Amino acid sequence: MMQTRVVPQRGFNLDYIMFIFTRVSGLSIVLLALVGIILAMVMGARTQMDLGTLMRWTFFPNPNHVVNSDIPDVTLGWANAYWSTMQFLLIFFAFTHAANGLRMIVEDYVNRGVGQLLVRGFFFLLWLFMLITAIFVVLSS
Amino acid sequence: MAFGRLTGLQGMRYRGGGPMLAFLLHRVTALGIILFVGLHVLASFAMQQVIWGDFGIFINTIYESPWFQIFVIFCVLYHALNGLRIVIMDFRPGLLKYQREALWLQWFIFVPIYALTIFVVIQRALAGG
Q: Which of B38 and A70 is assigned the larger pLDDT?
């Protein structure tokens, strides 16, 4: 049987916080991508990178990602705290944005109560798992 | 709407138009990005392990194919542009009057960038890169 969706309540609650966070993190991801692509261009991407490498620098500036390009000293010059910070910020913003987006899509089809609690618990665990996995991949690469 | 103006399949069609398409594509492209990024992270993790290396290589070959790249570029570019439009509209609700014009502007920005990018991807794929 079809039921109407429960509209989120007013006030300082999860829906309001995540509404703001979705906007802010979306803008932050675009900004981080722009910084990545501009700095990759500054470092000589026009002549020394293919499109895939440029995309890797844009969205996830990890030295492990650009081993295939012709730029020398990838591990020495670029694997510094600046790019690690960029990666951690991108991981946090992207996975939180994604987990919340999935939660919103699924909650359109779920009623309030136990189902909602289960959905939120599942996506919280998924978010935690992906966050830890991604940070592990960065730290061990 | 006069009675019986639209009958049959014509009457059943949902006439949401551009905004509905944007809503739908925003969700579909979000799922596409999550599919790609999730698989990518898991594959990167598997590549670093001794046991699951073959699994990582298997996933890598899927998303290194030009077809998957064309799909992912569509997802990322559309989601980014549509998200920017939503952010602007949310922080300046007065602009909601021009939502349909904004959607057309969004397509006019999207199409050249996407066409140029997939041109490069296809060129590389045909050259055997």
A: B38
pLDDT value at residue B1: 47
- The answer to whether A98 and B33 are in contact (CB under 8 A) is yes
Q: Whose structure tokens read 């499109």?
A: A51
Distance CA A32, CA A71 (A): 22
B residues 13-52 closer than 8 Å to A (CB)? 27, 30-31, 33-34, 37-38, 41-42, 44-45, 48
Could you tell me the domains of chain B? 21-126 (1.20.1300)
Rounded to an integer, what distance in angstroms lies between the CA atom of residue A17 and that of residue A31?
Answer: 21
| pLDDT surpasses 90 at B129 | no
Residue B87 and residue B83: Cα distance in Å, rounded?
6
